[in-house]
Design a protein that fits this description.
By secondary structure, this protein is of the alpha+beta class. The protein has three helices and seven strands; from the N terminus they run αβββαββββα. It has a four-stranded mixed β-sheet. Strands 1-2-3 form a three-stranded antiparallel β-sheet, with helices on one face. A hairpin with a 2-residue loop joins β5 and β6. It starts with a helix and ends in a 17-residue tail after the last helix.
Length: 123
């Protein structure tokens, strides 16, 4: 009897864990647009909203968005900034004394580096 109860409870728990995804996993929505999984909110969102939520929950400063980087002497480790390029936007994070794509620091899904302006930030 104990084995039956344990097995029953185990089978109830499996679907809960099966639905959990890694933070920053990217998937294509039914409309063809890319979506990123936000573990903190347990939801799929568009990539720009994912970036916004990350910057907001990140303990470092978020410098907002602009086509010009913040003054180098004012930024600190792990600060974030959304760079606006002609090709699109990309979330940047200050890490080891320079701006990097946030994905290069956080190691989300590789699709982030090909999204919007991210392939062009170092041109």
């Amino acid at each position: 009897m104990k084995i039956s109860v344990f097995l029953f409870l185990f089978l109830l728990i499996i679907p809960v864990y099966a639905e959990e995804h890694e933070n920053g996993l990217v998937s294509q929505g039914s409309d063809g647009k890319l979506l990123a999984w936000n573990t903190d909110k347990s939801e799929w969102s568009n990539i720009e909203l994912f970036w916004h939520n990350f910057a907001k929950s990140n303990k470092a400063k978020y410098w907002g968005k602009s086509n010009m980087y913040p003054n180098y002497t004012a930024v600190k480790e792990f600060d974030t900034f959304l760079i606006q390029l002609d090709e699109g936007n990309c979330l940047m994070q200050f890490f080891h004394s320079r701006w990097r794509r946030a994905n290069d620091v956080q190691r989300w899904h590789d699709a982030f580096n090909d999204y919007s302006g991210c392939p062009y930030v170092f041109n």
